[in-house]
């Protein structure tokens, strides 16, 4: 996967994305993720990989400042059509190279993005960088459980599925390893498909505001 390919593949996915990933069990899982988030008035919230705006619905009318970024202009266009009447800022941007200053957001929502970007470690680093001290990063994504090995079938299918725009072989423990001193894991729980998808909540530690 690279950014050029991802732009192309998500141009193809844009008309179908809501049908597959914003309905049924995925919609139920998204509701569970947001049910546990404690929002505060005037919070600045960044949706990384906002896509067609599947998660924006849970934040509108909450007296918060919403910004969403995505690499795909086609996905963003879908989001803009949905939320034209709301105060939501939607920007085309690479999640691996966020153009916001350090400590810009109180809360970051990173749903179904770390399994998509070419470099998940760099993406997480950028999210931590732009999170305010003591702020949170909420992740809903698929990762291999730490105690599991990648099966032969998944190993064979992995490069094929990568061509469809996602990676089924990533381990969160490897992605987060370089930043253990910068964050604290406050929650890591299964949320969909017997733990294939997890909800992970990170807290940016005050003593590691710069790195």
UniProtKB/TrEMBL annotation:
CDD domains: AdoMet_MTases. It holds the Pfam family Methyltransf_11. Residues 47-139 form the Methyltransferase type domain. It comes from the Bacteria. GO terms for molecular function: methyltransferase activity. Keywords: Methyltransferase, Transferase. GO terms for biological process: methylation. InterPro entries: Methyltransf_11 (IPR013216). PANTHER family: TRANS-ACONITATE 2-METHYLTRANSFERASE (PTHR43861:SF1), TRANS-ACONITATE 2-METHYLTRANSFERASE-RELATED (PTHR43861). This is Class I SAM-dependent methyltransferase.
